[in-house]
Design brief:
By secondary structure, the chain is α+β, with helices and mostly antiparallel strands. It has five helices and six strands; from the N terminus they run αβββαβαββαα. Strands 1-2-3-4-6-5 form a six-stranded antiparallel beta sheet. The longest helix has 15 residues.
């Protein structure tokens, strides 16, 4: 399914996005220093909390607009989206990268970027996309 190269390609195609090392050197993509997607290796506490349900493949962290969106994604496709107690009360989901369709990944990354980008930058991006349609 999707790969880190897919994440990198989609994220870096968005205006004013840069890639930076995050925790333990894992990549994170930011718009004006605000992270919107990042590699999220599972930590010991995550593995303990998830037990047998812990994925063994790559995990992407994705910022979402609010907790309602988070809950909808978790309910909609638990084979792809999950969370850990570390993210309780925080508007972000974890994604099993090897289970998400590249088109769905692209939509998720763009929505995360729009949520974190400054309002004017996001509005200009949406206007440019509408002009292309």
């Amino acid at each position: 399914m999707a790969t880190w190269e897919d994440v990198r390609r989609v994220a870096l195609a968005l205006p004013e996005t840069s890639e930076h090392p995050s925790y333990q050197g894992a990549p994170a993509w930011k718009v004006r220093d605000r992270a919107f997607v990042w590699e999220r290796p599972l930590r010991r506490a995550d593995l303990d909390a998830l037990g047998a349900a812990a994925p063994d493949g790559p995990v992407l962290g994705v910022r979402v607009p609010d907790l309602g969106v988070k809950e909808a994604l978790l309910a909609d496709d638990p084979a792809v989206y999950f969370t850990t107690p570390h993210f309780d009360g925080y508007p972000a989901v974890l994604v099993r990268l090897d289970r998400i369709d590249p088109d769905e990944l692209a939509e998720l990354v763009v929505e995360a970027w729009q949520d974190r980008a400054p309002k004017r930058l996001a509005a200009a991006y949406r206007a440019g996309q509408a002009d292309r349609a």
